[in-house]
Design brief:
three-stranded antiparallel beta sheet; 2 domains; 20 strands; Spore Coat Polysaccharide Biosynthesis Protein SpsA, Chain A; binds uridine 5'-triphosphate; seven-stranded mixed beta sheet; alpha/beta; 466 residues; 18% strand
C-alpha cells in the first residue's frame, strides 16, 4: 500500500483516466474494501495510459501494417547435403560451439501463454509428452540445457518467461523436479506484462468490480519483460551476447543448436529465424517474406490465397519458409528494442472475455465480445538491420503441442518424438522395434551423440539417463 490516502489516489487517477475516456473503470470504487481498492488503484497506476491510447488507436483504426514495397520470398540458408553445404554447416557449427564453450549464449524459453486450445489445467510446460516416460515439455527443455552445459563445459544460463497466471506453478514444477539437475544459479525466471482487454470502442473491461480484465501481452512482450526483470542486465553481467529463443510447446526444439548459433553469428545478424518447408498452401503456419528488402512474417490468416498457393519453377511453394518460432537474437538487439526508440506493434484478437457490465452484473459471453492486445516476437524481424533465415527439417525440429486433438496435438508430437528416436536407432545400426521409442536429452542431444554413445547393445525402448 502507498502512503497517499486512497481518496487522493482515486481523484488523481480519475483525472488521468478521463483524459483517455477510461474513467468508467472506477465506477465501483466506492463499493470496494480498502484492500480491494488498493489493488485496483495499483493496477491502474501501473498502466501507461498515453501508450495504451496509441496502441488502441492503431488496433481500432485501419490496418497499421506497412504493406508498401514489393513482396518477395526471403533469402534462406537452405538445406544442402552436398559437400559444399556440409562444409558450410560444419564451419557454422564450429563457430557456434566456440560461443557456447565461452559462455556467450543463453537459452530463453517463453512459457507465458494461456494454452487455451490445448485446454490443460496448469502451465503447458507440465504437459506429459514423452512417448514412453511421459517426460514433460519442461523436462525436455531443461534436460537439453543441462546436456548442452555438460557438453560445452559451461553452466549455460537459462531464462524462463512466465505470466502472472502460471508463474508460481512454473516455479513449483522446477522445484518439484529439483530443476532437472540444473544449477539453480543457471535459471532466471521472469514474468511477462499484461495488457487490458477492451470493448469495440477501446474501453477497458472489468473482470470484477475491483479488477481489470488483463491478459498476457503476447510472446512479443518478452523484450520488455527481459528488461523490466533485470534479465538483460543479468545477461550482460554474465557475458552473454546471444540469445537462443524458443517456445514451450515444441519438445523437438534443439536448444543451443550450434549450427544455427554459428550461422547467425557468422552473418552478423541481429535476429535469425529457423524455417521448415511449407508443403500445403492451406497449412496454418506463418511464412517469411521480404518487403522492401526487410524480412517480415506473413500470417497465414492474412495471406492472400493466390500468394499462398503460388509456386516457383521447381514446383515448390514460392512462400514456403514456414516459421517454427526458433530465433537467435543479439542481446544488443534486444536492448535496442526496449530503449524507447523502437516499438513492436500490437495486434488485436477478438475473444470471449467474461466481465462485469456497467450495472455490475456478470457477463459470460457466448460470442467474442472483446479485443485482446498482443505483441508478436517475429515483428522484431522488421527492426533488425541484418537477419538470417535458416531452413531445417521439420521432422527433426518441430512438433508443437497446440491443440487437444488433430494437427499439432499431443498425439502428433509424441509420434514425432518416437519417429526421431527410430531414425537415430536406424542410423546407429540398431534393430528398430515396433511401438514407441524414446530418447532422453541426457542420453543424447543429437544423432551424432546417439551413435557415439551406443556400443551396439540394444538398450530397450527408452534411452535415458538421469
Ligand atoms: P501460442 O501462440 O501458441 O499461444 O504461444 P498459447 O497461449 O500457448 O496457446 P493458445 O493460443 O492459448 O492455445 C506460442 C508460445 O508463446 C508463448 C507460449 O507459452 C508458447 O510457448 N506465449 C504466448 C507467451 O509466452 N506469452 C504470451 O502472451 C503468448
Amino acid at each position: 500500500m502507498t502512503d497517499i490516502p486512497s481518496a487522493e489516489r482515486v481523484a488523481q487517477l480519475r483525472a488521468a483516466l478521463s483524459e483517455h475516456g477510461q474513467e468508467h473503470v472506477l465506477r465501483f470504487a466506492d463499493e470496494l474494501s480498502p484492500d480491494a481498492l488498493d489493488a485496483l488503484l495499483s493496477e491502474l497506476e501501473a498502466l501507461d495510459l498515453p501508450r495504451l491510447d496509441l496502441r488502441l488507436k492503431s488496433v481500432l483504426g485501419e490496418s497499421h501494417e506497412d504493406t508498401s514495397g514489393e513482396l518477395e520470398p526471403p533469402r534462406v540458408v537452405e538445406l544442402d547435403n552436398s559437400e559444399a553445404g556440409r562444409a558450410r554447416d560444419t564451419a557454422a557449427r564450429e563457430a557456434g560451439e566456440e560461443l557456447l564453450r565461452t559462455g556467450k549464449v543463453a537459452a530463453f524459453l517463453v512459457a507465458g501463454g494461456q494454452g487455451t486450445r490445448l485446454g490443460y489445467a496448469g502451465p503447458k510446460g507440465r504437459f506429459p509428452v514423452g512417448p514412453l516416460t511421459n517426460r514433460s515439455l519442461f523436462a525436455y527443455h531443461a534436460q537439453r540445457v543441462l546436456a548442452a552445459s555438460r557438453r560445452y563445459g559451461n553452466a549455460l544460463p537459462y531464462y524462463v518467461m512466465t505470466s502472472r497466471a502460471n508463474h508460481a506453478d512454473t516455479v513449483a514444477a522446477f522445484e518439484e523436479a529439483s530443476y532437472w539437475g540444473l544449477d539453480r544459479e543457471q535459471v532466471f525466471f521472469l514474468t511477462q506484462g499484461m495488457l487490458p482487454a477492451v470493448d469495440d470502442q477501446g474501453r477497458m473491461l472489468l473482470a470484477e468490480k475491483g479488477a481489470l480484465a488483463l491478459s498476457p501481452d503476447g510472446h512479443g512482450g518478452c523484450f520488455e519483460a527481459l528488461q523490466r526483470s533485470g534479465a538483460l542486465h543479468d545477461m550482460a553481467r554474465r557475458g552473454v551476447e546471444q540469445i537462443f529463443y524458443f517456445q514451450v510447446d515444441n519438445p523437438l526444439a534443439p536448444v543451443f543448436d550450434p549450427v544455427f548459433i554459428g550461422h547467425h553469428a557468422q552473418a552478423g545478424a541481429e535476429m535469425s529465424t529457423k524455417v521448415v518447408e511449407k508443403l500445403d498452401p492451406d497449412e496454418k503456419v506463418g511464412v517469411l517474406g521480404r518487403r522492401g528488402g526487410v524480412d517480415c512474417l506473413l500470417e497465414y490468416s492474412d495471406l492472400d490465397p493466390a500468394i499462398a498457393s503460388a509456386r516457383d519453377d521447381n514446383g515448390k511453394l514460392r512462400y514456403r519458409a514456414g516459421n517454427i518460432a526458433i530465433h537467435m537474437l543479439q542481446r544488443a538487439f534486444a536492448e535496442r528494442l526496449v530503449n524507447g526508440e523502437l516499438e513492436l506493434p500490437v495486434h488485436r484478437a477478438n475473444k470471449k472475455v467474461p466481465h462485469v457490465d456497467s450495472a455490475g452484473a456478470r457477463v459470460e459471453p457466448s460470442e467474442p465480445n472483446a479485443i485482446k492486445l498482443e505483441m508478436f516476437v517475429f515483428d522484431a524481424l522488421g527492426f533488425a538491420a541484418t537477419t538470417l533465415v535458416q531452413e531445417v527439417r521439420r521432422e527433426d525440429e518441430f512438433a508443437p503441442v497446440k491443440n487437444a486433438e488433430g494437427n499439432d496435438s499431443p498425439a502428433t508430437s509424441r509420434a514425432a518424438l518416437s519417429a526421431q528416436a527410430k531414425r537415430w536407432m536406424t542410423q546407429a545400426g540398431l534393430h528398430v522395434r515396433d511401438g514407441d521409442v524414446e530418447v532422453g536429452p541426457l542420453f543424447a542431444l543429437d544423432v551424432e551423440a546417439f551413435c557415439a554413445t551406443l556400443t551396439g547393445a540394444d538398450f530397450g525402448p527408452v534411452f535415458d539417463r538421469s
